[in-house]
Design goal:
41% of the residues lie in helices and 19% in strands. It is α/β, with parallel strands linked by helices. Bound molecules: S-adenosylmethionine.
């Protein structure tokens, strides 16, 4: 009986610790950029349709969360790269990649501001409004001509999208 109660306490402790660690990392991600709010699956489909994916494309999801955009895009592109700062989401999405046996999906644990974007064809993005100007500067400086950025919920300041569907925006970058 004592063993049972101790095991129960241990299990509860692990659960509470997990929740607290998750929230601390979510807070950390928020300070570094944006919190984890997954894009609804129907909007993931709309984003990828608007990006007009090609089999030769390298797609990067900046702040890849649980990996859902990468998993949906993988059959239609050459390579999918997820950049995620939260270690719990990084590991969770890596495990899901293995389980789904997606060989063209790679997830990197990194701060997106330190990632070189020069070889990327398509960027998918669901970030926060106050960082969109800073992101635009990075994209203008690093993206190759013709690269596409599909952004859910937020648009770039002072830049007209090439296409728009509701609150999903497509931008095409030129030199
Ligand atoms: C709004 S969520 C979007 C998740 C996913 N792209 C989706 O659409 O379902 C933003 C993600 O960006 C991650 N993130 C925030 N700041 C980051 C940073 N500086 N570098 C890398 N990832 C970051 C968060 O941890 C979170 O998973």
């Amino acid at each position: 009986m004592t063993f049972f109660i101790l095991s129960l306490y241990a299990a509860l402790f692990v659960c509470y610790a997990g929740v607290i660690i998750f929230f601390l990392y979510t807070l950390y991600a928020f300070v570094k950029g944006a919190p984890f709010v997954p894009t609804a699956k129907k909007n993931v489909k709309k984003m990828l349709a608007l990006a007009d994916l090609r089999q030769t494309d390298v797609l990067m999801d900046l702040g890849s969360g649980d990996g859902r955009i990468l998993f949906a895009a993988a059959p239609n592109v050459r390579q999918c790269i997820g950049i995620e700062i939260n270690p719990l989401l990084y590991w969770w999405s890596r495990i899901r990649t293995r389980v789904k046996r997606l060989n063209n999906v790679q997830i990197i644990r990194k701060n997106l501001w330190d990632v070189d974007l020069s070889s990327v064809d398509v960027i998918s993005l669901f970030f926060i409004h106050p960082k969109m100007g800073k992101l635009l500067k990075k994209f203008d400086a690093e993206l190759k001509p013709g690269a596409r950025v599909v952004s859910y919920a937020f648009s770039f300041p002072n830049r007209e999208p090439a296409k728009r569907e509701g609150n999903i925006f497509l931008y095409i970058f030129s030199p």
